[in-house]
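Below is how a single chain appears once it has passed through the pipeline. First comes the sequence as given, then the structure the pipeline wrote out for it. We keep one example in the README because the format questions we get most often are answered faster by looking than by reading.
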Amino acid sequence: MSALTNTNVFDYINVLDKAADASWLRNDAISNNIANADTPGYKRQDVNFETQLARALHSSRYTSMDAKVANVKLNRLNPITYRDYSGFSYRIDGNNVDPDTEAVYLAKNQVVYRGLELSMNQEFRNLQAVLK
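Resulting structure:
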């Protein structure tokens, strides 16, 4: 089995795992936003991951997706939590959280996480099929 770890068979799984971690972090940020919807001056949080992933995958324009995923530097692919300090606020006290919008973001994120989970499971099933 150690021979497998020295190959690229886990490239997709590793990238999917990073994306799932980012989705989990986004879930926490959205939950914090909802919990602080009535906190004066609170600014909503979000997670930036998709931009980093797109940049990592588009680094080499004329290569296959397999080659792009194999070339992703996982240590540089980290989700970044940030606060949205835009001048836009829903309330006079400076809070910029709209609970209805956050609920939509939460539902979307749950669908994304489930899709990532299913994709990782499929990758493991593919590995099992090859090993049989």
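The helical segments are 2-5, 11-35, 50-57, 65-70, 99-131.

See the next section for the split statistics.
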